[in-house]
Design a protein that fits this description.
alpha+beta, 6-stranded antiparallel beta sheet, 4-stranded antiparallel beta sheet
């Protein structure tokens, strides 16, 4: 009833809001290069803002991990493999060890366990088939959780600013909560010029079910989380669970932080935490040239300007019976060097059997792309069939450049024709290869 008065509660409206929020809280594989932090990096960042997390240390050697376990001097220890993938607790190491998360009360157990984790691949439901190499483990204080809640701060377009979303039903999928029990979802719109008010942080703490002195403790943690959100140019900070221990402490047990890539110039220390060893090397290489690249499983490589056009290009390739090999957006500031480097990256993929260039020249000059395509073909020594569709600024000159290049470039007048020709060319190339 209190929430209904505050927010003019409507179950369908709230469920829709949380679905949008959950989408923002999910690191979708889009053209944006998201910075992923390891768990220990997120916890270290939170500590700087006086946010309560477990005591922890990070080790890259088994003996070091055991020493740290003794130094923590806590009743129970948890050790976690540090990789950018979920499902670690149910994973399996190439050493034969089961689980990437281990609990023990004896620090002497940590060394032998760490020796079977460090330097081995961990396979989980979210990793590639061969798993991911574990280079570090986090040795931390294990805390019992008496009660779990959910808390997130995110940018919300409809609210024109930050929103705090919370639920007393923590530790589970927030979308499931929104669908089945939407009355357990609460939100507070934040005036970015004022920040979180004492009234808002207290209201959220109470809605999350904290009682007595724990209200003030939760309130302080919420305010500190907002300071973190604002200070590091985050797009979302999600804490699940945001809970309390049997002794009454309010703790951020696990957190996911996403950052605004456009703020990397003023958050260099944070972006320097990036671990390229956990990323697709093609994506790392593409980022050096301001190319937005994501590798896929298909055989038709795409070079497009603009995320929307890239998505449409991949869709129509599938519609015509093909499979896209990548998402590659060269943006509106593409030049010949960027196009050449893009060709090097996509042609190096052994699965690629045709390349489709689809450019709509609004900001970008089609002639610039055409010159880049010709230069790239010659420099790379391209052997793959190449389909090019250009439209927009200076397209007549661009078509002339391609025609006079002497290269076996397949031209197309529209996207549908380009996709059909690319699918056909890929099939013919595969037939010759076999």
């Amino acid at each position: 009833e209190k929430f209904a008065e505050q927010e003019h509660y409507n179950p369908s409206n709230m469920a829709a809001f949380v679905r949008r929020a959950a989408m923002a809280l999910t690191p979708l594989r889009t053209q944006q290069r998201m910075l992923n932090l390891h768990e220990y990096q997120s916890k270290a960042l939170m500590q700087k803002f006086d946010i309560r997390v477990q005591k922890f240390k990070v080790a890259d050697k088994a003996a070091e991990a055991e020493k740290f376990a003794e130094q923590l001097d806590v009743p129970e220890i948890v050790m976690k493999a540090q990789i950018h993938a979920g499902g670690r607790g149910k994973g399996t190491f190439s050493s034969g060890l089961k689980s990437g998360v281990h609990l023990t009360k004896n620090p002497k157990d940590i060394g032998p366990l760490a020796s079977k984790m460090l330097g081995y691949n961990l396979v989980t439901k979210q990793t590639p088939a061969g798993g991911v190499l574990v280079n570090k483990v986090m040795v931390a204080e294990a805390l019992d959780i008496a009660r779990e809640t959910y808390l997130a701060i995110l940018m919300d377009r409809d609210s024109n600013g930050p929103v705090i979303v919370g639920s007393p039903a923590g530790g589970v999928d927030i979308e499931e909560v929104a669908e089945k029990t939407p009355h357990l979802i609460f939100k507070e719109k934040i005036d970015i010029t004022k920040g979180v008010t004492k009234e808002q942080s207290r209201a959220m703490a109470e809605n999350l079910g904290f009682k007595g002195p724990k209200i003030q403790a939760a309130q302080k943690q919420i305010e500190n989380l907002y300071r973190l959100f604002l200070s590091v140019d985050a797009t979302q900070v999600e804490v699940n669970p945001f809970g309390e221990t049997p002794s009454g402490e309010v703790v951020c047990f696990d957190a996911k932080i996403n950052f605004d890539d456009n703020a990397s110039f003023r958050q260099q220390d944070i972006f320097d935490m990036r671990d390229p060893a956990e990323e697709d090397p093609r994506e790392v290489e593409a980022s050096k040239y301001n190319l937005n690249y994501i590798g896929m499983e298909g055989n038709i490589a795409c070079l497009v300007n603009g995320a929307g056009l890239a998505m449409a290009t991949m869709d129509i390739i599938k519609l015509r019976g093909g499979e896209p090999a990548n998402f590659l957006d060269c943006g509106g500031s593409a030049n010949e060097e960027m196009v050449t480097n893009a060709f090097k990256i996509i042609s190096a993929d052994p699965r690629v059997e045709a390349i489709l260039v689809n450019i709509f020249g609004g900001i970008v000059n089609c002639a610039t792309i055409a010159n880049g395509v010709v230069a790239a073909c010659k420099q790379v020594g391209l052997k793959l069939p190449l389909v090019v569709r250009l439209e927009g600024t200076n397209v007549e000159n661009a078509v002339k450049i391609l025609a006079e290049s002497g290269l076996p470039i397949i031209s197309a007048n529209n996207l549908d024709e380009a996709a059909s020709k690319a699918v056909k060319a890929a099939r013919e190339f595969k037939g010759k290869k076999n």
